Structures are given as structure tokens and as C-alpha cells.
């Protein structure tokens, strides 16, 4: 494959780790990474944490692995389309990059405030990339009178924690019942809400913002609430989740929409009829694949660890073939830090009908919660108890009877309760 | 120098914090904060941190990032 060209669309974590794995596995041909941002691949998790608190500079998180790659970089160059028959990636600058194989790793972008006119007001931020974090940090440096955060998912909660650490007044408006409820459920989310409130956040569950209003200078001033009422704020962080970057694949006949690009277990992208493309692969946030641990349900994970592992899996499938690579079955895992809590998770809680505090106790601020469905173990979440988590990997992989570990010294009898997960969003 | 820690793997054994106290710090019980771009003069300390990590969660790459990473015209 010395004369082959592999193009990687997307120059963030999944694209970088995929490219590295290609080289480690002996690919000696031409390797081109295309990125929409004008930066080498950088690490995103610090952006909502220590970059906002000023402990880390926004430009300091370039990832290891960029130096020895022997790749061509086309940075600051968004992709605009794909010529499937002609095997070429189309670039927004009018360029065209022919490939023998393509790895799609275009990731996701922050979901914007839905009213475009309102979203243009100055002082309204989203948080996804390095420029976003720099702009938000600069807005915070002007010491706004109140910061309003829309959404209490991981980005919203981490931003709230960081901004409180700067001593600024923060309100979090959450349409859901508890922070992180979509992922952790109401039981664990309520514990996080307590920490959030103890840190001085004005947390408003079950509340929806309908309009953002500006002043005469076009600067955001106020948020109007559904059911009346308003919150004055001069800086707003829109943290309403992410949209997968698949627009550029429209009209190609590939199975792609805002929920991701569908691929098989070997990361081969599927066409609309569900047939795998031999030369086009996907990995990272943008990829949606049937997860064998979850009954083949299509999942797309915005997880750091998934970007690393799936990028490498795609590389193996490209070079050694789909059979050798096998079905991608990485156990979902993520971490978050906020309000002094280190939250770590294994497995997927979606569909859980029970949660039990299996070790520790929320009253002491240190515990492990295990999630089950129909008597089988699905997932586990540790809060300031990360060393208890690895013991749950095997039971989750095996869908062991729930709860999987009983008789812990501090938990003589487990009391499973409904986890309080909201109904899944329509795809 | 570029550093990244796999915080899924990290279990807060804090050995990096002893090996390179200027670059790795625990906040609270187990939140690891680290400098992703330490200066070259800390190379030996950061290498000690990599070696000391019981779960091998720290990755470091020395030298400058490719300058030619250049934005293609």
C-alpha cells in the first residue's frame, strides 16, 4: 500500500489516533489530515474546566502524537462534500483530495441557540472548540454581573463549576429534573444538584428559556422563561448538546444525519440501503454503530475514550480487513470533574430500570451507583470513588445479574430504586 | 512537550504529583489537573511521572509540534 493515499476528514482526537494507528500498523503511503480549525489536534476536555478557570491556556492542549506522524496537514480547511464514485473529498476552499481510503472523523459541533437572530447577540457563547473557550474566558474576564447557563448536561455543569470557581454569579436553567439526568438519572443527578447549590449556583430545574433579549447595543441582557418570568444575565452559555458534523455528506447516498454517520462493527460506513462501503470508514463522535453489548442498538458516543479506541479500530479494519478487525465493542467510558466531584462511568445507562448505591454513601460524598435493566447489569458510575469502578467492567460486559456485587462491607443490603432517567430523545 | 493523561485510566494514585509536583496536582480527592504543555526544562520530571504511573495513563511527546502544520493555502 506504499502508493495508496488515505485521507482523514477531521483533525481532532479520533482522526489523530486513527492516523497514528495506520502508521503503527505499517501504512507507508500518503496520509493527509484535513481539519476545519486552523490548529493541530488538541485535547478538548480541559476547555470546559481548567481553561475557563485560567489554569490552562486555551492553546496549550495540542495532543501528543502530532510530531512523528509523517502526515500532510490541511488545517483551517472545512470539508464540503464527497465524490463517492470518484473517490475524492471536496474541500470548502475548492480543493479536491483523491483517496484510496477515507476515514470520516468530523466529530460534532455545539448545538446553537435555535433562534438565529437571538443567537447573534454578543455575550452568547457555545463551548466546543478552542476558540470558543478563549472567547468565553475573555467574556468572563470582563466580570459579567450574572452568567446564565442553558442546559445541565456535562458541558453546562462543568462550565457552571468553573465559572463559580471564578467567583461569578451563575444561574443554570435546566428543562430536566436534575443535572446530568439524561445520563445519570434523577437519583445520582440530585446528589450533583446538591453540590451545585452548595457551590452557590442558582439551579432551576424544570425550567425552559423561550427567548433571549438584548439591549440597544446588541448585547444580551435577559432571558425570558416559559410560563412567565425572566432572568437578567449579561453572559449566556448555550449548552444544549451537540450536532454531528454530517451535513457535508448530504446527497451522497450514505446513511448520515444529525445523529451521526452509520457504520458497521468494522467502522465501514453504510449506504442508505445498509451496505458497507469498502473504502470509507468512520470513527469518533460522528460514528454511529451497532454496539454488541447493547443488543446491536446503534450508538454514537461523544466520549474521549471512544475517539481513541474507534480511531484505532478503523485503522486496523482499513489495513487488515473487517474480519481481522472484528466487531468494535469498546465498553463505553467517560469521566467528568465538577464541583469537587470526579464522576466516572462504565457502560451505558440508557434504558435502565433500577439503580442501587452499591458502595459508599452519597452522604459522605463518595459512592458507586450501579444501573440495571430487567435484572441485568448495564452500567456503573463512581463519584469520588474511581478505584471501585474497574471491578464492574466484567459484570457489565457479561450483563451479569443485577446487582452484580453484593456483600460489600459497607452495604449489607442493596436497595435498588428507579433511576429516574428521562425517556430517550427521538433520533 | 505535549502531555495528555487518559483520565478514564487514571485512578488518582498521585505518583505523578510526587514525581513532577509543578506539573501534576490533585484537586479534592481524585481530580487530576496537569499541565498539557510543560517547558522542556521539566523533561526529566515529566518522564519520571510517566514511569511512576501505576496505570500507565500518561503520554508525553517531546520536541516542537510540526511547524509546517501549516495551514494550506
From TrEMBL, chain A:
Top-rank taxon of the source lineage equals Bacteria
- Pro residues composition bias: which ranges? 415-427
Q: Which InterPro entries match?
A: FAD-oxidoreductase/Apoptosis, FAD/NAD-bd_sf, FAD/NAD-binding_dom, FAD/NAD-linked_Rdtase_dimer_sf, Reductase_C
Q: Give an example GO molecular function.
A: oxidoreductase activity, acting on NAD(P)H
Q: What is its cofactor?
A: FAD
Question: What are the UniProt keywords, alphabetically?
Answer: FAD, Flavoprotein, Oxidoreductase
GO CC entries: cytoplasm
According to the entry, every stretch annotated as the FAD/NAD(P)-binding domain falls at 6-311
- Whether Oxidoreductase counts among this entry's keywords is yes
**Chain segments carrying region Disordered:** 407-427
The Reductase C-terminal domain covers which part of the protein? Answer: 334-404
Could you identify this protein by its name?
Ferredoxin reductase
Q: Which organism is it from?
A: Methylobacterium variabile
UniProtKB/TrEMBL annotation, chain B:
Does the entry feature the keyword Translocase, yes or no? Answer: no
Which UniProt keywords are present, listed alphabetically? Answer: Electron transport, Iron, Iron-sulfur, Metal-binding, Transport
Query: Which Pfam families does the UniProt record give?
Result: Fer4_15
What GO molecular functions are on record for this protein? Answer: iron-sulfur cluster binding; metal ion binding
- The answer to keyword RNA-binding applying to this record is no
Record InterPro entries: Fe-S_cluster_ET (IPR051269)
SUPFAM superfamilies the UniProt entry points to: 4Fe-4S ferredoxins (SSF54862)
Q: What is this protein called?
A: Ferredoxin
Q: Can you name the source organism? A: Methylobacterium variabile
